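Deviations from the work plan: none for this task. Representative record:
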Amino acid sequence: MAFAAGVPTLRDVSVSIPTGQFVSLLGPSGCGKSTLLRLMAGLLTPTDGTITVAGVAPEQARKSSTRMAFVFQDPTLLPWRTVAQNLRLPLELQGVPTAEHAALISSSLRLIGLSDDDARKRPRMLSGGMRMRVSLARALVTSPELLLLDEPFAALDDVLRQQLNEELVRIWREKMWTAVFVTHNVAEAVFLSERVLVMSSRPGTLVADVPIPFAYPRTPELRGTAEFAKLTADLSARLREAAT
Amino acid sequence: MKRFSVGAILGTVLPPLLLFVVVLLLWEGAVRGFGLKPYLLPGPGLVWQALQRDADKYLQAVRFTGLAALCGLGASLLVGTTVALIFSQSKWIRSSGYPYAIFLQTVPIVAIAPLIVHWFGFGFGSIVLTACIISLFPIIANGTSGLVNIDPDLLDLFRLNKASRWQVLWKLRFPSAVPALCIGARTSAGMAVVGAIVGEFFTGYGGKRFGLGYLILFASGQARIADLFACMFASTLLGVAIFTAVTLITGVIQRRWYQ
């Protein structure tokens, strides 16, 4: 895969993600992990090589066979709509019958821990963490089969990030979508995933495919264990190698 | 949201008012002190007399010009937004059409106004058209930039949800452009008043209906300097009133948009 003439953004990336798996793409800034995610979403077209989602090209999959949702680094909420109206957006755009909207919205709100009172607020009145929750809820409202997350918690403080990681894992266990999570935070990748793909930069390529052996449900205590610390240190070392 | 309080209003209104009074006093003082002749510079007292003597005439003219300016502003909002919506649909349309929009901005209105009167007659319509043309560009420019400069992630979000071109326009581009259109409307508000007055220069006196432009022309022809000052004050007050009204309305719209 290459972007502009001669300068490949990604090279020799060959990976297969089974249905229902939670995978993290871990790599230094600018290594092309977001590009890879956008290729999976069909938002970009590869100049070389192939990508398939459920057997067909991503663009095709998105339009016909696979329910796909994307969570951006910024909450990307529409400021003129309330929280509930923001959740309604994907339903409106995808032509989900209006009669089903209310039930889908309220179940998505409940899933992510937002109250009816929050649902009536405009994004401007919410904190950064709450906005990110709304963004997640908006992705979940269409019950995706494939969830692509592009460093969604990168702008949040550590405590908030950990809280949202715990909730994300809990919801994933409940719904079992396939998740591809882009991050440059090692602890986050280890805590969330069943498998971590480490990428290097310029050109972006896969340097390691590491299974994460910890059992689910994963609780905050996991972060304090020696095994967690060892694996995190291991991956950090690999990441440092990849960055040089 | 900041609430309006009596203190805040006094804080914004009182200082400029005080300055106005000081300037009036200095003006009157200078006219008397230097013994200036009224045909050179009439003092504020004489201007006030002129305003009072023909109060009915000025009120009627302000109403007439104000109505023309508001109609012109409304028309330019409608036309400008439509043009901006068309411009937002393709880069190609935009790059071929935008130079002509700039033409609207750069061509002197006094050069077009006689043509307008020639084609559309000496009536109210020509005045409205002049006001519309002069106030069109800020709406097109602000509207287009608001419709086009959209967060690429939001465009991706709409694309991922299989949004049609129409849905992108009405659910994303247009609502995103509302604040920019409000700024355009505020800029255009003052210009519409100028446009209406210029239009009246060329349509002149039409029976019992006349505006400030006609009064200015009339006073100038007879070298009534105090009347000219009175016209200037009336025009300025009208401009400020329309600008304030548009600012308040757009402020409410913008607040409703975000809070």
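Chain A touches chain B at residues 38, 41, 43, 62-63, 68-70, 72-74, 76, 78-80, 89-90, 92-94, 122, 124-125, 142 (CB under 8 Å).
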